[in-house]
């Protein structure tokens, strides 16, 4: 059922030596939703995913449909993971490799063929794993993750290194999986891509979750942080005006400046009323990037 909680990760923590790389991370994945897991390099996304999947030891627990993964007899029917292409012997041919994995979980051969078709790899079925392109390897990894028809999909940086065509395919594919009722977790540092893909965003900064919100809320909050870029011949006069009305103007060279705290309509109206000339002003669309940079900045200030 859409919105039903399928995965509940609580209090995930992990240290390497005396370095605490994850600190009390909690995540909830819901049926019918793509959750975007974003964070800078080294923030701890991969470590979180490995803990969730039981591939790494640490503190905390993750329940899949109410139970830890190890209590499920066939974990592949609960969660499918794509952790960077397809893992297997490089000399094995794709279809044979998938059939071998399928046999281990009592999945019939026909499912391998239908999944190869689903991910658009029917023509590559006889290629050796070593001969697959990066995009093909990602698709093959997805086919492998889907063998047990799990209701949960977890993908670590699946868009890494893909060309725009493959990224688009991936986006549409994952949206399709969510539309079928699966809960999908995707980690990425490609914020523009995530904005188009995710229903919900979890932001990780230095091992801690600093935001977990629906994308609609993220974009609303980003709108509040929107930056206006402008050009004006008398920046000191404009700066005074902006400050008087609760905004902040920062010169960026020449006659250009950025303004935060006021939107373009307000700035334009105030300038007109005060007789301060403006050559042009521009306000970008609210983006996940604005939101992300905002929360990451606040986090660095307080810690
Ligand atoms: N086996 C390990 N031994 C020591 N430190 C580790 C190990 N694995 C990860 N780390 C450290 O833990 C931190 C989190 O790493 P992790 O790979 O989870 O981050 P990430 O968010 O996935 O980053 P990226 O986007 O670069 O993959 C980093 O500082 C990393 O150096």
Automatic annotation (TrEMBL):
SMART domains: AAA. The keyword ATP-binding applies. Residues 7-231 form the ABC transporter domain. Pfam families: ABC_tran. Transmembrane segments: none annotated. Keywords: ATP-binding, Nucleotide-binding, Transport. InterPro entries: AAA+_ATPase, ABC_transporter-like_ATP-bd, ABC_transporter-like_CS, P-loop_NTPase. It comes from the Bacteria. GO terms for molecular function: ATP binding; ATP hydrolysis activity. PROSITE patterns: ABC_TRANSPORTER_1, ABC_TRANSPORTER_2. Belongs to the ABC transporter superfamily. This is ABC transporter, ATP-binding protein. It comes from Streptomyces flaveus.
């Amino acid at each position: 059922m859409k919105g039903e909680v399928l995965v509940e990760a609580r209090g995930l923590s992990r240290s390497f030596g005396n370095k605490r790389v994850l600190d009390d991370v909690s995540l909830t994945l819901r049926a019918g939703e793509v959750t975007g897991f974003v964070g800078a390099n080294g923030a701890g996304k991969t470590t979180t995913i490995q803990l969730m999947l039981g591939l790494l030891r640490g503190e905390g627990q993750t329940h899949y449909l109410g139970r830890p993964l190890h209590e499920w007899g066939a974990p592949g029917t609960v969660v499918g993971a794509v952790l960077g292409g397809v893992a297997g012997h490089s000399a094995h041919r794709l279809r044979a490799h998938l059939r071998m994995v399928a046999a281990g979980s009592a999945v019939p051969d026909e499912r391998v063929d239908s999944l190869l078709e689903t991910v658009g790899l029917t023509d590559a079925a006889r290629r050796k794993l070593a001969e697959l392109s990066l995009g093909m390897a990602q698709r093959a990894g997805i086919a492998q993750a889907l063998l047990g028809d799990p209701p949960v999909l977890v993908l670590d940086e699946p868009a890494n290194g893909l060309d725009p065509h493959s990224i688009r395919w991936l986006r549409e594919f994952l949206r399709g999986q969510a539309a079928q009722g699966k809960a999908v977790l995707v980690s990425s540092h490609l914020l523009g891509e995530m904005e188009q893909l995710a229903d919900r965003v979890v932001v990780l900064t230095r091992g801690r979750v600093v935001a977990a919100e629906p994308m609609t809320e993220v974009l609303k909050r980003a709108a509040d942080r929107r930056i206006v870029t402008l050009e004006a011949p008398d920046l000191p006069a404009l700066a005074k005006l902006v400050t008087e009305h609760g905004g902040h103007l920062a010169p960026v060279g020449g006659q250009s400046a950025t303004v935060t705290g006021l939107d373009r309509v307000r700035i334009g109206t105030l300038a007109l009323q005060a007789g301060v000339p403006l050559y042009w002003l521009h306000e970008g669309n609210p983006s996940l990037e604005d939101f992300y940079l905002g929360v990451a900045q606040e986090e660095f200030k307080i810690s």
